[in-house]
Amino acid sequence: MAGDSNRNVRLLCNPKQLNTKGSDPEIHFWLIGSPFFPPLTVASFLRRVHALPSDFPNESHDLRTLIPKGFEVIGALASGDGEADARAPVDAARALRSLLYGEGTERPVIGAVRGSHSGDLRFFVSESGNAASLEAVTSVIEEQHPEKYVWENGCLLHCELPIKLPLYYALKNPTDVEKAYVQATEAVVAKLRDPQAVYMLETSNKTSQDIPPIIIRGLQLDFYTDLSKIKPLSEGEDGFSASSLSCSYFSISSKAGSPVFSAENADTIQVSVLFNSLGSSSASTVPVAEYFPVQEETRLLTVDIKLDVLCYSSRELPLKYAVSSLIIPGLVDQLNVVQKLMLPNLLAQHPRLKSYHFSPPGILHPITVFYELSFGETEMKQVEVRRSLHSRLGLPYDRPLLRISNALDFSKLKKNDIVSLQKGSTLLKNVHTGIPSSGVTGGTVSLVQGSYEYFHYLQDGYNDSGWGCAYRSLQTIISWFRLQNYTSIEVPSHREIQQTLVEIGDKDPSFVGSREWIGAIELSFVLDKLLGVTCKVINVRSGAELPEKCRELALHFETQSTPVMIGGGVLAYTLLGVDYNEASGDCAFLILDPHYTGTEDLKKIVNGGWCGWKKAVDNKGRNFFLHDKFYNLLLPQRPNMV
Predict the structure, then answer these.
(1) pLDDT for position 23
(2) Rounded distance between C-alpha atoms, residue 600 and residue 368, angstroms
(3) Sign of CA dihedral 216, 222, 228, 232
(4) How far apart are CA 126 and CA 106, in angstroms?
(5) Considering 206, 528, 595, 631, which has the largest number of Cβ atoms within 10 A of its Cβ?
(6) Residue (of 211, 208, 189) closest to 200 by Cα position
(7) 52's torsion region: left (phi>0), alpha (psi -120 to 50) or beta?
(8) Do 464 and 592 reside in the same domain of the chain?
């Protein structure tokens, strides 16, 4: 739980990436924190999208479901140099908090200013109870392990609730359907807030079914807004009932062996609303039918809604408060947001709204987004929605990070990130993770970003030993584009690669089924044909010249970050990164070798050097790249899309 207030601002995110230039509004960013963190802890900066001062209602509408319950707006950032300029972001944050949470000045609010010329970032705090005064913050702490900070003592709560709303309206007055929709929504909200409502909580991890579920009912709902003041219940307070257990009851993540801290790997509590178990204190013992007579011709419209709420909680929060102060408000917010989105076109065109949860890179907390899927996610309105979200979250515009295929999937069995399933066989994934350092003194490491699968000789029972290394490198590259959601095509087989080259006229029909080698140029043709991916090709006359290309390769990994194919003579490798000392020229290459013929044994692959750092000349004077062979380097470029 949050501790005592202090005068330190703790940053869990990198403020150096913030851009406050251009024609943005006066308030550039909202500061996001959590009641489960110490006060003045900033988890993320979210750009203000709606520019006009009158657009606060639109901002609150967008942020209400975008930010999961358990995180909240705690301040704002604007251009400026001192305390006088910090007043505007403080007032803006308080106004937005009032719209979002219905509160005034009871929580401290941060006003941040960034110098228009210097770029210096300064923080001021407006304390609760004295909103007129601002206090300068002199100490800013940048957390070194922000993911661990967020997820070591936090967990997720996930609740899906499908609802059918039967709406009756008179044909003479079709606008009555809107009134019926509002009334139906209010009835669902009343059910959710009914003290007799029943909620079941269980772990979503299929490997830990030995943790029995918890049933919670009879909640005394007072809808706490300040979760930081909720303390764990003792046995005397609640008779130590199931609802007094904390979220840590479902904590199953191992803390040993350097766990991966992220939303994807967080402990997740699945919450189910048992509407069938609702009932009054004097429930009927016989069936009851209700009859509603109508005076004119009436039509029935059934609206299908699937609420899908994701919340963040401290492990110490009692389960009863996790339901009453996180899950229920989250469901109510989604109902209201869906209502606002659906009402304008309820009769003309029944919208297909669905919420998805994402954990985009650089954002510590998950986000929730509603997509309208009537015309598919490639329809231009959807593209513009994603582009606006990229702007708000500070995400690049050249890669799809918020497509449906990027969404968190809570139905999948949690598994080690090193394993991926492809065409029925188990492939190793991201095998370079944890590889020891290269040995380059004072070098800068530039690596592939994102995930890939390791393709090598003899996989899938297919004998391509001696000729298929470039095919395997191409398969690894295509797997990278698949896993980054640039494409949904399957990784092609050798024969499918050959057929593609025949179809574009690069090879004769006799090439299909042969064991002929291919090189960087053929790989570029296949990537262009199958994925629409363009490639840059670097030619070197001798392996001795490859170290001279390290600066260019480092730039590639820093900007494009795709795997690179190196082809020379009769050999092909996949390059995953470089370690380069610009002053001394010393460098090393992180090579993924497709010539490996063994089983999917990560330890064997790493210890055998099939994935590891290679110097152009090793400590015994041997050349890794042959001096009497020319080499082509294929650098696939990221498609420019969201």
Answers:
(1) 40
(2) 36
(3) negative
(4) 10
(5) 631
(6) 211
(7) beta
(8) yes
Count CB atoms within 10 A of the CB of residue 413: 8
pLDDT at 277: 53
Is 338 a domain residue? yes
CA dihedral 489, 495, 497, 502 (to 10 degrees): -120
Q: How far apart are CA 202 and CA 157, in angstroms?
A: 10
Single residue among 144, 173, 203 that ends a domain in this structure: 144
Determine how β-strand 72-79 pairs with β-strand 109-114: parallel
| Domain around 104 | 8-144
Are both 161 and 133 inside the same structural domain? no
> And the tokens for 463?
């004998």
Half-sphere exposure at residue 230, Cβ-oriented, CA atoms within 13 angstroms:
25
Of residues 412, 413, 446, 414, the one with CA closest to residue 432: 446
- Three-class secondary structure of residue 178 per DSSP: helix
- The rounded distance, in Å, linking the Cα atoms of 387 and 392 is 9
The reported pLDDT for the residue numbered 77 is: 94
What's the CATH code of the domain at 500? 3.90.70.130
**Alpha-carbon gap, residue 102 to 366, rounded angstroms:** 23
Q: Which positions are catalytic?
A: 469, 593, 595
> Are 169 and 299 spatial neighbours (Cβ–Cβ below 8 Å)?
yes
User: Which residues of the chain carry a pLDDT beneath 50?
Assistant: 1-5, 22-25, 235-236, 238-240, 254-257, 278-282, 413-425
Q: What is the largest CA-CA distance in the chain?
A: 96
Q: Does any domain span residue 49?
A: yes
How confident is the model at residue 69, as a pLDDT?
96
Q: Does residue 325 sit in helix, strand or coil?
A: helix
pTM score of the predicted model: 0.74
| Start-to-end C-alpha separation, the chain | 37
Distance from C-alpha of 390 to C-alpha of 398, rounded to nearest angstrom: 10
| Residue 212 near residue 288 (C-beta atoms within 8 A) | no
Residues in the chain: 642
What local confidence, expressed as pLDDT, does residue 502 receive? 97
- Angle formed by the axes of helices 176-193 and 328-342, to 10°? 170
**Domain count across the chain:** 3
- Write down the pLDDT at residue 236: 44
Compute the distance between CA of residue 478 and CA of residue 620 in angstroms, rounded to an integer. Answer: 35
Q: Identify the CA nearest to 313 among candidates 365, 353, 350, 358.
A: 365
Q: Which of 372, 405, 427 is the last residue of a domain?
A: 372
The rounded distance, in Å, linking the Cα atoms of 589 and 587 is 7
d(CA 32, CA 103): 16
d(CA 13, CA 143): 8
Residues 93 and 183 in one domain: no
What token pair was written down for 255? 């803390």
Q: Is residue 487 part of a domain?
A: yes
Whether the Cβ atoms of residue 633 and residue 566 lie closer than 8 Å to each other = yes
pLDDT of 113: 92
Q: Are residues 272 and 248 in the same domain?
A: yes
How many other CB atoms are there within 10 angstroms of residue 482's CB atom?
21
Considering the domain boundaries, does residue 45 fall inside one? Answer: yes
Tell the residue number behind the tokens 């699968």, with chain if given.
453
Q: Which residue has the tokens 């994603």?
A: 386
Instruction: Please report the DSSP string for 401-468 in residue order.
Output: SSSGGGS--TTSPP--TTEEEETTEEEEB-TTTTPPP---TT-EEEE--S--B---TTGGG---TTT-
Q: Position 198: which residue type?
A: V
Q: How far apart are CA 200 and CA 159, in angstroms?
A: 10
Which residue is it, tokens 């990221």?
638
Cβ neighbours, 10 Å, residue 244: 17
